[in-house]
Structures are given as C-alpha cells and as structure tokens.
Amino acid sequence: MPKLGMEPIRRDAIVKATIAELGAKKSLDVTVSQIAKRAGMSSALAHHYFGGKDQIFLAAMRRILSDFGAEARQELSSAAPDERPQAIIRSCFAPSCFTPDVIAAWMTFYVLAQTNEEALRLWKIYQARIRSNLIHALRPMLSNPVEAANDMVALIDGLYIHAALNAPEEPELAVNHAMRVLDTFLEAEK
C-alpha cells in the first residue's frame, strides 16, 4: 500500500534531481535511471509519476519557470511604474538564472523545444509572458511598445545564451547591455 502524501515529495525530489543531473551532464543524455538514483528512488517509480524522460524534463523546466515567475513578480512588486521595464530585465538575468544547473537546463530546453511540441509550447508561453509584461510596462513610455517589446525579448534571449556560455558568473554584463538598448528606445521617444 502506498504511503499517503508521498507523491508530492517524490515528484519534487525527481524534479530537483533532474535539474541537478542536467547540470552535471550538461546535455539531454541523462537517463531516467540516473535521475531516479540521484532522487533516491527506483526508475520505475520515476516513470510511474511522470511517464518518461521528456515529461520529467518538462516538469523540471516548469519548476524553473515557476521560480523565475515568482522572482519576476517580486522584482516588479518593488518597482515604481516607470521602472517596470528595468525590473523585468533584471529578473531575466537574476543570479538564480545563472546557476550551473539552471543554465544546463535552459540550454537543453532550447534543444528539446526543436523536436518536442510540449517543450515548444512551454517556451512560447514563457516568451509571450515576458513580451506581454514588457508591452504593459513600455506602453506609457513609447509610442510603439509592441515593436520595442519584441526587440527586447529577442535581445534578452540572445544575451542570456551569450552570458550563459561566456560569463555565467557575471550576469550583470548582460543586464547592462539590455539596459543600454532599453535606454536607446526611451531616448528615441523624447
């Protein structure tokens, strides 16, 4: 008979183990068995809770995105209305986004999104949320906030990849670059 209340604890352990294992291997060449071993359970149990490796990985990315969302909401809650675009940028390059495990998860997520419909859908939701937040934040400041938001979303993604591969210990370099581009948009409006 299964222990009541263990499912959420085990699911959480598998998600954390997935992120850690991706960080260790730095690729999708991670097996369910390796994840389960790191989580302290059998691979059969991991399969029982999630189905397969892709589902386990997507659950890990949902966790990373959920943590990112909470961090972004925290950053936005303390920002003045005219500082919201900067708050969004800062949250995209928060130190928590640059841990080795999270970087590895993001890089493998980009690869998985090329072949997995659910991963692509999750990536599109993430992109749409940032875009929507930027449009809302830029609307009072720019005559064309949609175009600027589209440019900033593409820039943020590119800067994240560049920073993750070149200087993960210095995410503020990416923040500074994105802020300079944002300032250019705002100055052009004056």
Quick rundown:
With 190 residues, the chain is mainly α. The protein is 77% helix and 0% strand.
- Beta content: under 5%
Structural class: mainly alpha
Task: Give me the CATH architecture, please.
Answer: Orthogonal Bundle
Number of strands: 0
CATH superfamily: Tetracycline Repressor, domain 2
Within the CATH hierarchy, at the fold level, what is the topology? Answer: Tetracycline Repressor, domain 2
The tally of structural domains comes to 1
Query: What percentage of residues falls in helices of 4 or more residues?
Result: over 70%
Helix and strand run: HHHHHHHHH
Write the SSE topology.
Layout (H helix, E strand, L loop, with lengths): L5 H20 L6 H8 L3 H8 L2 H25 L6 H9 L7 H13 L4 H22 L6 H22 L4 H19 L1
Helix pairs in contact: 1-2, 1-4, 1-6, 2-3, 4-5, 4-6, 5-9, 7-8, 8-9
Q: What does it look like?
A:
With 190 residues, the protein is mainly alpha-helical. The chain has one domain (6-189): Orthogonal Bundle (Tetracycline Repressor, domain 2). It contains nine helices and no strands. Helix 1 (6-25) crosses helix 2, helix 1 packs across helix 4 and helix 7 (117-138) packs across helix 8. The radius of gyration is 19 Å and the shape is elongated. The mean pLDDT is 92.
